[in-house]
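Hi V.,

Quick status before I head out on leave. The structure for the redesign project is tokenized and pasted below; the design run finished overnight.
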């Protein structure tokens, strides 16, 4: 329709009906629900919680605020709300505030229509252009949001400051007939929040002595973090009262949902997708790290643990494998358990520590979370090394001997190193050198494929270390596994070697 309609007269000759932005969103949502169209398909884990609340708010024609911790897709949901808008709407050509040709509100549009009548030119605005987002910061001013007098415009048009045409409109008037989002609302200074009162309720704006009756048509969406109510700012009560629906967000409640989000949002190169195999086990471990972080006593839970932690960690895993391939010349590779050390920078940059965590050190906390994730997943694939087995009812449990041959091999003075630049062949050769390791995995997982066999073999070693059956040390270039008793007896000498060679004992605190 828009290609053939260029003037107000042509628009009037059609069946176009002028609607407010809230009525427009409501109308399109009704059609979507009736036709089973999911307009929030990219949002995972909110199907039964948050999305129904958004739909209810839209049906009620409410302004909304998303309240939740960081990394809970608040801004993403706000941006997806543009899917509820019409694909195109007509506006008066040249209007600063997207005037509806059938319901103009600006002096410019009213005068133009009075002058040209049905010959008034119109333009068409796509839904993607009807979204405005502003991050609330302490330096945001009323001029930024509402507007101010423009001396250049006054001089150019030879107008006095008594003429309202000298006004330069701010972001909010320019978002007329649009969705306007203010992120981190509590960071907005209280005096600026006050300026939003009349806009939300009555539609009045005041600029330098001008009181303009502009019935702005805007869908307001705000986001906020509960932590900010006390730490950095607050939402003043009268403004909060004018926001119709408050929608609480949350983190994924299941590993499976978290995995969907990570795989959807991670940005992997074509080379990484085609040439690096990611076992399900390692995908689970990455997600488990964030789940462990969200219940860790070392981490400030009021600050939250963003979903971006696992996304960044997943990308780093693939990049670590790609780096190894570039160095070794391997054409293909599989993510290894030892590659998990590459996620440490992703963890340390995404968590806020409490006092106990600060005492431990942020790197130690990251390693602790990785260890907890390994321990949590280990029992889903292998027997718990700490649990014995009873021969008959009432008898004492015998010591678990499942891993005896492997542990004995290390107790004989053997050790192995998994280096970051180890080729696929050397990696396999190193794993096969551990007596009893391959037989154990094949016995417990008889149908396992070779691609997973070696990942599981390495996982056994990491699991035994987490259960204090072996010792694990971080080297500059990788990880080393040794017997536990020998490391304890030579702890002093080994610590001196660590200081000289850059090695670090990963530690075995009670889990």
């Amino acid at each position: 329709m828009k290609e053939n309609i260029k003037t107000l007269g042509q628009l009037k000759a059609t069946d176009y009906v002028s609607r407010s932005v809230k009525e427009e969103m409501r109308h399109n949502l009704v059609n979507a629900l009736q036709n089973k169209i999911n307009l929030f398909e990219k949002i995972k884990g909110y199907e039964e919680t948050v999305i129904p609340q958004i739909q209810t708010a839209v049906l009620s024609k409410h302004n909304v605020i998303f309240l939740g911790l960081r990394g809970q897709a608040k801004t993403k949901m706000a941006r997806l709300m543009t899917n509820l808008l019409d694909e195109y709407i007509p506006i008066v050509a040249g209007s600063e505030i997207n005037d509806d040709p059938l319901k103009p509100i600006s002096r410019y549009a009213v005068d133009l229509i009075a002058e040209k009548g049905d010959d008034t030119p119109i333009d068409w605005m796509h839904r993607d252009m009807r979204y405005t987002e502003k991050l609330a910061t302490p330096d945001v001013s009323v001029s930024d949001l509402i507007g101010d007098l423009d001396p250049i415009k006054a001089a150019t048009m030879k107008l006095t400051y008594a003429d309202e045409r000298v006004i330069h409109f701010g972001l909010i008037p320019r978002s007329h007939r649009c969705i306007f989002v203010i992120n981190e609302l509590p960071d907005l200074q209280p005096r600026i929040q006050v300026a939003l009162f009349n806009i939300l309720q009555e539609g009045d704006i005041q600029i330098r002595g001008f009181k303009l009756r502009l019935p702005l048509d805007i869908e307001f969406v705000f986001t906020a973090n509960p932590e900010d109510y006390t730490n950095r700012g607050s939402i003043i009560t009268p403004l909060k009262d004018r926001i119709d629906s408050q929608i609480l967000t949350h983190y994924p409640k299941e590993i499976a949902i978290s995995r969907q989000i990570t795989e959807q949002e991670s940005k992997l190169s074509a080379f990484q997708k085609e040439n690096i195999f990611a076992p399900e086990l390692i995908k689970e471990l990455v997600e488990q790290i964030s789940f462990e972080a969200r219940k860790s006593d070392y981490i400030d839970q009021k600050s939250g643990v963003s979903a971006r932690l696992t996304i960044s960690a997943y990308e780093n895993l693939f990049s670590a494998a790609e780096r190894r391939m570039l160095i070794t010349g391997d054409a293909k590779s599989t993510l290894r358990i030892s590659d998990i050390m590459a996620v440490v920078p992703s963890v340390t940059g995404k968590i806020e520590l409490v006092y106990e965590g600060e005492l431990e050190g942020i790197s130690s906390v990251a390693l602790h979370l990785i260890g907890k994730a390994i321990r949590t997943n280990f029992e889903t694939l292998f027997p718990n090394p700490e649990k014995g087995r009873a021969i008959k009812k009432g008898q004492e449990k015998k010591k678990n001997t499942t891993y005896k041959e492997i542990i004995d091999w290390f107790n004989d003075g053997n050790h192995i190193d998994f280096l970051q630049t180890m080729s696929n062949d050397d990696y396999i050769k190193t794993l096969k050198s551990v007596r009893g390791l391959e037989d154990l995995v094949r016995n417990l997982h008889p149908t396992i494929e070779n691609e997973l066999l070696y990942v599981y073999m390495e996982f056994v070693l990491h699991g035994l270390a987490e259960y204090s059956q072996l010792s694990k040390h971080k080297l500059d270039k990788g990880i080393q596994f040794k017997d536990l008793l020998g490391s304890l007896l030579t702890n002093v000498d080994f610590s001196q070697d660590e200081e000289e060679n850059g090695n670090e004992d990963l530690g075995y605190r009670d889990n």
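Above is the designed sequence. The CA atoms of residues 97 and 132 lie 12 Å apart.

G. will cover questions while I'm gone.

Best,
W.
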